[in-house]
Amino acid sequence: MFTGIIQALGTIQKLDNRGNDIRLTVSSPTLDMSDVALGDSIATNGVCLTVTDMGADYYCADVSAETIKLTGFAHYSAGSTVNLEKAMRPTDRFGGHIVSGHVDGVGEVTQIIKHSDYVEFWVKAPEAIAKYIAHKGSITVDGISLTVNEVNGAEFMLWIIPHTLQETIMGSYKVGTAVNLEVDVIARYLERLMLGDKAAEPQSKGIDMAFLAENGFLRK
């Protein structure tokens, strides 16, 4: 588990194609590797990866074809900069929100508006996960725990302060940049609980307007 508080930036050194997966090598002179062991997890742009090899300033991880297809890894190359966070320990401060490192979809930066003391980012999420994004709720963007400041359909807006721009890769975002999105896990569990007994039915599609009407959640 992670909290979405970025600990360091890393650079992708290698992407070795091994047929069914890719061996990723990430270097970071600022990430403390002294308490990392083989098999530990490191969130790399919000994607939970298992350390398979490591040194004082780098680690390797295997990225499956499925992960590449469902995340921004399809857009990365040697030299790309990535956000890094080691897995949370029970004694750590919980500075962000519950982040699993399981990306729900890839969004796209649609607007960047600079203000005097912050930058306004608009991101378009895949329609399938838009229902989980709420005003003043939490969302993870490339591994960063952020607060949603406004929602308009499948698009949402973030106010980003200079510190976040400096300490993460958000300072390099441009209109069109693809970003990994993970919605608040509490929203997903709440949806499942609201299904009640219907959750056990095969191919349950989750909550939609028809489900709400059928179960009395909508006023006539």
Automatic annotation (TrEMBL):
Superkingdom: Bacteria
EC class (word): transferase
EC number: 2.5.1.9
Xref: PROSITE patterns: LUMAZINE_BIND (PS51177)
Lumazine-binding repeats: 1-97, 98-194
Chemical reaction(s) catalysed: 2 6,7-dimethyl-8-(1-D-ribityl)lumazine + H(+) = 5-amino-6-(D-ribitylamino)uracil + riboflavin
Keyword Chloroplast tagged: no
Pathway membership, UniProt: Cofactor biosynthesis; riboflavin biosynthesis; riboflavin from 2-hydroxy-3-oxobutyl phosphate and 5-amino-6-(D-ribitylamino)uracil: step 2/2
Subunit structure: Homotrimer.
Name the record gives this protein: Riboflavin synthase
Species this protein is from: Alteromonas mediterranea
Lineage: Bacteria, Pseudomonadati, Pseudomonadota, Gammaproteobacteria, Alteromonadales
